[in-house]
Amino acid sequence: MSIRFPVLAAAAALLGITMLPTESYGDEGMWLFNNPPRAQLKQRYNFDPTDAWLDHLQKSSVRFNSGGSGSFVSADGLVMTNHHVAAHDLEKVSTFEKNYLRDGFHAKTNAEEIKCKGLELNVLQTIKIVTDEVKASVKPGMSAAESFKARQAKIAAIEEAATDEKNHIRADVVTLYAGGQYHLYTFKRYTDIRIVFAPEKQAAFYGGDPDNFEYPRYDLDVAFFRVYENDKPIKPEHYLKWSPNGSQEGELAFVSGHPGRTSRQNTVAELSYLRDPGYPYLLQRLNRWEVLMQAWGGRSERNMQRCEEELFSIQNSRKARSGGLGGLLDPHLFGKKVAEEKRLKEFLAKQESTEKTKWVADAKAAFDTIAKAEKVRAEIIQRYTMLEAGAGFNSTSFSIARTLLRASEELPKKPGDRLREFGDARLPSLKLNLFSDAPIYEDFEMLKLADGLSFLATTLGPDDELVKQVLAGKSPRERAFELISGTKVRDVAAREKLFAGGKAAVDAAKDPMIELARLVDSASRAIRKRSEDEVEEPKRQAYAALAQARYAMDGDKVYPDATFTLRLAFGTIKGYTEDGKKVPAYTNFAGLYERSKEQGNKGPFELPKRWVERKSQLDLKTPFNFVCTADIIGGNSGSPVVNARGEVIGLIFDGNIQSLVLDFIYDDTIARAVSVDSRAIVEALRKVYDANDIADEILGKK
Amino acid sequence: MSIRFPVLAAAAALLGITMLPTESYGDEGMWLFNNPPRAQLKQRYNFDPTDAWLDHLQKSSVRFNSGGSGSFVSADGLVMTNHHVAAHDLEKVSTFEKNYLRDGFHAKTNAEEIKCKGLELNVLQTIKIVTDEVKASVKPGMSAAESFKARQAKIAAIEEAATDEKNHIRADVVTLYAGGQYHLYTFKRYTDIRIVFAPEKQAAFYGGDPDNFEYPRYDLDVAFFRVYENDKPIKPEHYLKWSPNGSQEGELAFVSGHPGRTSRQNTVAELSYLRDPGYPYLLQRLNRWEVLMQAWGGRSERNMQRCEEELFSIQNSRKARSGGLGGLLDPHLFGKKVAEEKRLKEFLAKQESTEKTKWVADAKAAFDTIAKAEKVRAEIIQRYTMLEAGAGFNSTSFSIARTLLRASEELPKKPGDRLREFGDARLPSLKLNLFSDAPIYEDFEMLKLADGLSFLATTLGPDDELVKQVLAGKSPRERAFELISGTKVRDVAAREKLFAGGKAAVDAAKDPMIELARLVDSASRAIRKRSEDEVEEPKRQAYAALAQARYAMDGDKVYPDATFTLRLAFGTIKGYTEDGKKVPAYTNFAGLYERSKEQGNKGPFELPKRWVERKSQLDLKTPFNFVCTADIIGGNSGSPVVNARGEVIGLIFDGNIQSLVLDFIYDDTIARAVSVDSRAIVEALRKVYDANDIADEILGKK
Known about the structure:
Chain A is an alpha+beta fold. Chain A is about 50% helix and about 15% strand. In chain A, strands 2, 3, 4, 5, 6, 7, 8, 9, 10, 11 and 12 form an eleven-stranded antiparallel sheet that branches.
C-alpha cells in the first residue's frame, strides 16, 4: 500500500523541489535511462547492461498517471502493478453490491474485463535533451516572473511540437537537476485500460495500516490490467518474461519505475523548512483527515466503502511523512546534510580564488536565495494550502467547479500564457480526468467540505472578509449542505456542456459551487503567483546554479532527484539486523498463517476466506515477500524487479520503516525496498484464485 | 463512553474558566444543592423538593475522582456508575491473560471483589459559604500576583482547618461564579473501592466511537463497585432505591452528578479565543494522539490493550470538542452570545448614570481585562502546553518524575506558598495517585515520549536551547529509549523511597527522568507563573466583577458554571425531531439486534457472544436507553437519574451530538442527555450475566 506517489494535491502542496546528489555510494541511485550507472554496475557487480537490455526494460515499463508504476508482462498487453495502485480504479467501478476493491476481481475472458474510468498509462519512447533550447528562452535582465513565463512558453511550444495526438504520443518537457537540465520525453499514451485481475484487499493489504511500511510482510499486493487500442488488446513490442526459478538471497536485482519525488539535494535551509513548519503542518492536516474519515467510515459499511481508498492514501502519507520527519529530527542524519553543504561551500570558496565565472557567484548566492524563499514559503503555506491547494474547500465538486471556471478563462489565452495545467499538451489528460464518470458521493462530499470550510474559518479566522463571504452567514455545515446539494457539477453531462460552452456558459450557469470558485479565485491566484514568483522560480534558478556547482565538484557520478520519470535502480536481495535481531530477506506463505494466529486472526490480520480454504493446497514454503537494497521511493509502487537477464523476479510494493529517510538521504544499512516474490504470484494465482489463465499467460504458456 | 470529565491534563490545559449565566429557560440549569431551582420546579412541574429529599439525594451521590459520577444503590455500599467511568480501573487490574475491561467481570462473593488501584470516591457531606473570609484575604493595592498568593494561602488554611484525616474527611474550597462565591465542601473520602461487576466492553460501549454521542443507542454502560472501610463493606446512611416500574415518556427526571466544566458565561473575547486558536489547537493535539495510538494499537492485540483506554478518552474528547467548535462556528449561536454580552453592557451603561459603585466600574473594565488575558493566553498556549502541561514529555514516567522533584521542593515550604496541588489538603489524594501500583508499560511509554519529544522539537524548534538540552544530541526516539529504559520511577517502592527521602534523596538519585524534569522546571514554572499572573488571576477578578454585575441584573435566577462539584439538573423524558425525522425517547433490546444486523455484525457493531446466546431468554421489548432534557455535560457520566420519589430510573452515560454545544449555551430543542434504562440493567443482570445476586441487592431483595 505504501509507496504509491501521493497525488493528494493539498497534501503535496509546496513540498519538495528537486535536485541532484553529490556522491553516490553503495547501491544508491535512481538513474536516468539515458545515463545509466554503468561504472557502478561494472565495479560492484561486474555487470555491463547493453543498450538493447536497457531499451527493452524501458519500453516494458509503464507509468500509471494515477501515481504508480507497472510493466508489460505478456504478449497480449497484460500489465502488472500493485493492488494499491489499482485500488482507486477498482473503487471507481465498484458498487455497494459489487465491491471489487474489497472482494477482488477476475475476468475469465476478455469480454469480462472492466474498462477503467479516467485511467491513463504512459510508456516512455524517446528522450531528447532540450536544455539549451529551454535555457535560451530566458534572457539576461529578465525578472523572475518574466523568466518563469518565458520558460513556460518555450516548454509549451516544445511539447506542442512533439505531441502527436493522432498516434497517441504525449510529450512532456521534464525538469531535471532542478533546472540544470531539461529533457523532452515522448510517451505512448494509452487510455483504454481494462481490469483483469485483483485479489481481495485483505490479501493484498494484509496487516493493513499497522503493518504498512513494516517488515517482515505477507502481502499479495498485485493486480493485472490489459491495455486496449481500437477495442483490441495491444501486442506490445516489449514485455518482460518471468524468471523460471525466481530469485535467491545475494542476487543482483534491478527496479525500473517512477520514483515520485526525493529531496536529497535540498539545502539545509530547505530541510529546516520541512522539519520545522513544513512536515509538522502537513502531518497536522493528514491527522485531521485520517480522524475525520475513520470516524465517518466507522458509522457504517457503506460510509467506509466510500472513503476507504482516500483514507488509506492519507494513512500511507502520514506514516511516510512521520518517518521522514523522524529522519530530519535525527541530529546524526541532519549533521550529514550540514556537512555535505559545508563541503560544497568550501569547494565554491576555492573556486572564487582561482577563476571568476558567473556560476560560482550564482551558486554562492543560491544559499541565501533559497533561505529567503523558504521564509516566504513558511509565511504563505497556510493561505496557499487553504486556497490554491483547496484544503479549505476539500471536495471533488469544488475541484471540478474550479477546473471549469479556470478552463473558461485560460483556454482563450495563448498556450504560453495559461496556467501550466491548461497547456495544450496537458489538455487530453485534464479532460479525461474532468469527464470521468467515477462516482462522487454526496454524503462524503458534504463531510469533507464541511470540515474544509471549518478548517478555512479557523485558519484565516471567522472574521476574515473572504471567509465571511465564503460562509455567507451560515455555519460550515449548513453552507456545505447548501453548496453540495445545490451544485450540478457532479453530473458528467452538465460538466461537458459547461466546458464546451466556454466562458458564456460557465458565467450563465450560476452554479453555487462555480460561484464559490469564482469568489475565491482572485485571492487564490494571487497566492499562487506569490508562490511562483517568490518561492518556486527563485529556487528553481538557485538550485540550477547549485546543480552546476555540484557538477563542477563531482563530475558525472550523479543522478537527479526523483521527478516521477522513469528510473533504473539496482541492489542486492538481502536481509538486515534490527535491534540486534536478524530480519531474513524472504518471508513465505507459512509466515502469513503464523502472523494471523499470533494476532488472533482479527481486523487487518484476519485471513481472507479463500486463503483459509486453500491452505492445504498451497506449498507453504513458497517465498512470499522479499527485501533488497535498491533505491526506491513513493511512485515506485508496482515497479517490476528483474534479474540480470531482465526477467521478473518480483514486484515492488513498499519500503520498510527505516527506508522512509530515503527522501533525503540514501542508506543501505537497514533501509530496504519490499517486493512481492514472483513465485508467490504464480502459486497464488493457480492455487488460491483458480487463475491458471493468467499464470499461463505471464509464463508464456498460453 | 462520552461524557466522562476529561482528566487529560494536556488536553484540558488552559481551557475554560467558569462563570454564571444570565437567565435560565426551559429545563436549563446545573443547580447547587444549597440553592436548588425551587421556583422553576414549582412553576414548570408543580414539584416541591423537601430538604430531606435533597439531603438524601446529595448523600447518595458519589464523585469518582478519576473523572465521573456515581451513586450508592444498596445498603451494603454498592456504587453504580458507567462502565466507561470504571474502565480505567478495570484496565489497571487486568493482565494480558485476564482482560476484565474487554471481557467483563463478576465477583460472585465479596471475597472475589478486586481492589482498585489509586481510586478515590468522595461523598459530599456539608457546604459552608466562606466567600467573605476568602475575599477579605485580598487587600486593596495588592498586585494580581500578590492577590493570587494571599487568596491561595487563605484557601489552604480554611481547607486545612476543616480536614479531618483520621475520619477521612476531605475539605475543598470550591470557587463558584468565577470567584463571586467560595464554598467550603467537606467530603467523606473513601479509598478502598472494589470492583463487583462490569459487562464486557462490547456491550457497554456498543457501537464504539462511531456511535459515541449519537442517538438512538444500545449501550449497557454500567458497572458496580463496593465501598469498604476497615476491610468491610460500608453501610451507607443514604442510598437510592430502585423504581419498581422504571419510567415513562413525559415523566419528570432528576440528575444528581458532577458536571465537569461549562463555559456559558464566557465573554465574546474568551469564546473567540476558544474558537480561533484554542479548540483548533486542542483538536490538533487530540488528532495527533488518536492517530498515534490507533496506529500503534493496531500492530497487535497486546498494544491495543495497553493503549485503548487512553485512546477512547482521546476520541471522546475529540468528538466533544469538534461539536463545541461546530457550535462556536455557527453564527446564529455565536450571535446569541454577542447579544447576551450587549445586554449586560447596556445594563452597565445604565448603572453608571444612576449610581456610582465600584462594581460597575470593575465590570465595565472586565471585558478589556479578559480580552487582554486571552491575548496572552494565545501567545503562551503552545509553550505552556509543551512544558507545564507536559505534552512535550508525554508519559506517565515524566509525570511521576516531576511530581517527585516538585514535592521535594514544595513540601518544605509553608502550605500557602506551595504550588496548589501540594497543599496539605490535597496531599492524601496526591500520594494515592503517586504510589498507585497501576501498571505502566515501557513500550507504550516509549511511544508516547518519543512522540512528545518530537512534538516539543517541532513546536519550539530543534535549535531552541532548551530543546537541544532536552534531546542531548539524540533523536527523539533514541532519547525516549534512553530516558524510559533508564528511569527507576516506574517502581513504586523506589518512588516511595524518593518521596520519603525528600530533596536530598531526589537530588542524589541521578535518575535520568527526574533530571529531565529538573532541566525544564524553571522554564516550566516560569510559563505557569505567567499564566497564573497574566491570564488566570486577572480573569478570575474580571469574571468575579461580571458575576456581581449579572447578579445585579438578573437577581438569583442563576446557577454557576460547572466546576466538577455536585449539581442537580432536571428535565423531561422526551424524544425529538431531527431533519424532519422523529427520534423516539426510548430504544429497546430488539433495536440492538437490528443495529447489529444492519451493520453486518462487525467491529464496533459485533454482538457480544453472551448477547447472541441469551437472546431467546430476553424480553426484547425491555427499554434499553432513553433521552431526557436535563442539563448535563462531561463529568455527569455515571450520574443516577431519579424520579420525583428519588428512585433510580436510569443512569446517565452520554449526550447526543446536538448536546455538544451545551458547553456554551443550553438548548432543549434537540439537545438530549442519554441514559441506560434501569429496567435494562436488571433484565441484563438476570438474563445475560447470571447476576441475580446484584439484581436482588439493588432491588432490596437480598
